[in-house]
Amino acid sequence: MRTPSGRKALSAERLLRTARGVFATLPDAPGHDIALVDHLISALALFGLKYPSLLQFDHDCRQETTTRANLKSLYWVARAPSDSRFREQLRQKLRSRFDLCLIPDWETLYRSIITRLSSRSSTTPRRAAP
């Protein structure tokens, strides 16, 4: 498989796919109508779309077609969890030591980004000063 280089390796889409892949490796309890990966990606979208609050994000997910379209096309989330579902899921995961389980995966994601940044800077030719 060919590895992406330069801009494609550092594109928002590529980084979000990497984050989604990391989130997908986390264990999820069966029986939920919205998967854990969708909860986590929705939380990432909350920050990426620069919402001031979880309640505003929830309101726009329910009312605005633009927000729903952005979630679907940029973050691959068909249905975002409500603010109360976010809080409930977070409480459950923190009780089950989810925070300890997540730390190595964030490190993996961070290392992946740093590796791509450093490989891009080492392969990009430098321009001579005029």
**Alpha-carbon distance between the two ends:** 39 Å
How many domains, as an integer?
Answer: 1
Helix fraction by DSSP (H/I, runs of at least 4): 55-70%
Number of helices: 6
List unreliable stretches of 5+ residues: none
Q: How big is the Rg?
A: 17 Å
- Mean model confidence by pLDDT: 76
Short description:
66% of the residues lie in helices and 0% in strands. The protein is mostly helical and 130 residues long. Helix 1 (12-24) packs antiparallel against helix 2 (36-48) and helix 1 (12-24) packs antiparallel against helix 6.
Please give a structural write-up.
This protein has 6 helices and no strands. It has 130 residues and is an all-alpha fold. The protein has one domain. The longest helix has 26 residues, at 98-123. 15% of the residues are buried. This is Transposase. It comes from Thiohalocapsa marina.
Which descriptors would you attach to this protein?
0% strand; 130 residues; Transposase; mainly alpha; 6 helices; 66% helix
Task: Outline the fold blueprint.
Elements: H1 12-24, H2 36-48, H3 54-63, H4 65-75, H5 83-95, H6 98-123
